[in-house]
Amino acid sequence: MAGSVTEFALPLHGVSEPRPAFSSLCAMFAHAVATVPEVVALRGAGASLTYREEGRAVDALARRLAALAAPGEVVALLLPNSIAFRISYFAALKALAVPALLNPLYRALELERLLREVNPRVLLCGETTQALAHELAAKLGIPAVLGFGAELSVTALAAEPAAPLNRREAGAEDLGVLLFSGGTTGLPKAVPQTHGRLLIAVRCVDYSWPTRAQGEVWLPIAPFTHVYGFLQGLLSPVYSRAEVIIPERFKPELIVELLARHRVTVFGGGPPAVYAALLNAANLAGADFSALRVCPAGGAPMPVELLQRWQNATGCVIHEGYGMTEMAPISGTTDLSGVRPGSVGKPIPCNEVQIVDLETGTRVLKAGETGEVRVRGPHMMRGYYNRPEETAKVLRDGFIYTGDIGRMDADGFLYITDRKKDVILVKGFNVFPREVEEVIHTHPKVAAAGVVGVPDARTGERVIAYVVPRPEEALDADELAVYIAERLAAYKCPAVIRIVTALPMTGAQKLDRMALRAQALGDE
């Protein structure tokens, strides 16, 4: 087995089965391959792979990546949730490259911005993203593109004979991922995390949502490029030496069928919209969920009514958690702490959460008082990738200032009540008004635009755009919607576009977003 096994001195006392603590993510993966080689690791798109086969495929792809990227250089993954994604991720780690995870639903303009940020040496893509990957590589000067399909086959990689890699083993201080987050300050930025800090994050996940050391069957929903999906789909199942079922798409009836057929034990559901959709699935009644044990949730507040409906339908309690790309997870409701409706639980034992005043951010408030949530823990980011000014805004006095508004009760339960910034939360994803407004402003008929979010029972929030046309221009909302859809991921696109003659402005002639939000609520 590659990598040594060490013990982290963390005060985590969940109810999961004990297992080793590892020196790196590569060591964690190698432990699974060595100890359960014939256990099915991955199922997806009609195929399956054992841990032995996955290990061979990872080794084979790592050799290719090592020939193209030096240790510490970036390998960007432009792949949907798939067997190929997990192989690519661990292969990049084994080659000592840094995997940057790109959402394949993004448009060229969005991806170009992120790729410029991290400057990759290699771009790994799938069949549906190959044309886009080659276009971006040519434009940005990315030296190599590797595509699954005709060029790369999971089956062929798994069958390739063993050969030396000639790279040292990864260590705790090597970078293990670049995830993208807008944080609390604007457009997406890369968040680097080391192997060591990600291993701590995995243990924190297992504290809130305890699992067995072997025998779990996992079904993740969130994109592997999102911090929640990254932990639920890639890292935590390997820690548990579990089988992962990867749906080809999110269709409620399909998910219900997979949960029952594969006797899923851990359902990485995510935001309320996912659970609500499954509760409305035509085939839910009579589905056998008797194997289901763990149902995590996060990304948006979970309505009490939805919690009860899910428990009535499945017999399982949904346990909520709270986290962010810069540090995840932060808190959770657990069997140890109990579930308190409206709360995202107590801080995980190795984390510290404080509520501070909004004016200075330095005065710690008493229980029940509302202010900004600031957090710190052993798996927090050290800073944004090549963004010292942005880092200084968020990391202060050893804490991450989350931009969330909340309170803690006398028993230590955390409640998130609002957001300090104007980030709109759609289906668990951050949508930044400025990014949407910038795209709208590029339309030749647009003079001004303002974007806000309003509450939505299904998605958490909806994006509403108010747009002022240029003088003497007739601007059609449907035409503008098509224009935006060609340039932004679907969840970022406005649900409603309202054509107006003027936007509310402050005395300094800046967009009065508070007034615009009030107007949007009044227009509902």
Descriptive account of the structure:
- This protein has 524 residues and is an alpha/beta fold.
- It has a domain at 431-523: 2-Layer Sandwich (GMP Synthetase, Chain A, domain 3), CATH 3.30.300.30.
- It contains 15 helices and 27 strands.
- The strands form eight sheets. The protein has a five-stranded mixed sheet.
- Helix 11 links the parallel strand 14 (295-297) and strand 15 (318-324).
- The longest helix is centred in the N-terminal third of the chain and has 18 residues, at 51-68.
- Residues 1-11 have low confidence and may be disordered.
What are its keywords?
single chain; 524 residues; alpha/beta; GMP Synthetase, Chain A, domain 3; 15 helices; disordered N terminus
CATH homologous superfamily of the domain at 431-523, by name? ANL, C-terminal domain
Extract low-pLDDT stretches: 1-11
What is the number of helical segments per DSSP (H or I, 4+ residues)?
15
* Rg from Cα: 23 Å
Mean pLDDT: 91
Distance between the termini: 59 Å
Number of strands: 27
Strand fraction equals 25-35%
